[in-house]
Design a protein that fits this description.
108 residues, alpha+beta, five-stranded antiparallel β-sheet, 1 helix, globular
């Protein structure tokens, strides 16, 4: 059973109770933690989202993690979380490039 809450073109809060979904989320989270050598206290978030924007894959996996100094890093994998394999994650040397900056952001 798939439950979604739709906001504009991006459906946020897509929840599923399909077997293996939570295991897939946990697997990507563990790979992210290992790949980027994250400390136990560093937060990691893995989500599967749907997108209705033209050219956007119907399901994609979004990964975010926070390191010391509250630095947020993020990346997307353009496939459902259950289809993600460890080699889909960016290489460890890209960690600094994945950091999000709020400078020049018009949103806030």
């Amino acid at each position: 059973m798939l439950k979604t809450f739709k906001t504009g073109a991006l459906k946020i809060g897509t929840f599923t109770d399909r077997p293996g979904h939570v295991a897939a989320l946990d697997r990507v989270k563990a790979w992210t933690r290992a790949r980027f050598k994250l400390a136990e206290e560093d937060a990691v978030s893995v989500s599967q989202v749907t997108c209705a924007v033209p050219g956007c894959p119907p399901l994609e996996t979004v990964v975010a993690f926070w390191t010391a100094g509250d630095t947020r890093h993020h990346f997307k994998i353009f496939k459902p979380v259950a289809a993600v394999v460890e080699d889909d994650l960016p290489p460890s040397w890209m960690k600094d490039a994945l950091a999000a900056t709020m400078e020049g952001c018009e949103c806030c």
